[in-house]
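Lab notebook, bench 4. The sequencing result for the construct came back, and we need a structural model before the next group meeting so we can plan mutations. Quick request posted to the team channel:

Model the 3D structure of this chain.
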Amino acid sequence: MRADLLSIDSGFREFGWAAFFGGELVCAGLGINAGGPPRQPVNFADTFVPILERFEWNSAKAVIEFPKNRISTQNVDALLKLASSCGAFTSLLQAAGFEVEWVYPHEWKGMVPKHIMCKRILDKVTPSEYDVIDRPRNHNVLDAVGVGLWKSQRLRR
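Done. Here's the predicted structure in C-alpha cell form:
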C-alpha cells in the first residue's frame, strides 16, 4: 500500500496514527503498548516500526501533534511524557528518511471541544475512508486522522 503522509497523535502508552496518499486516508489505527508494564512507554520496535513497514512511502512526510502547556493543564508530568514520545517518534521517522513537522493542537483544531471536533473529523472522511479506520470512535485515532486532514488542507475550522 502506498502512502506519502503519516499523521500521529502522540501518546505515552498508546498513540493514534493515520496514513494518507495524495490527500486520501488509506489506513488509520491505534498503537498500543500491549502487555507492557504499567507506566512504561510505547515499545517502538514492537509497535511503531511495523506500522511504517506496512506502507511504501513516497516522499515521506510526517506531522505529529505536539503538546502545549496551558494554564488549564492539570498534569504537567503528562505533558513531559507526551513531549518525550514526540521526540522518539521524530527521531525514528527522521532516521527512516521522513520530513517531520510538529503542530500544536490549537493550530489545527482551534479551541473546539473534543466531542465536536471528533464529529467534524468524521464528517470530512468519505465512506470508503471511514472503512479503513480501525477504532473510528477512539479520540486518539480521530485526532491523528484530523491532523492528516488538516495537513492535506481538507479540514477547515
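Helices lie at 44-47, 49-53, 76-95, 105-109, 114-124, 127-130, 139-151.
Will bring this to the meeting.
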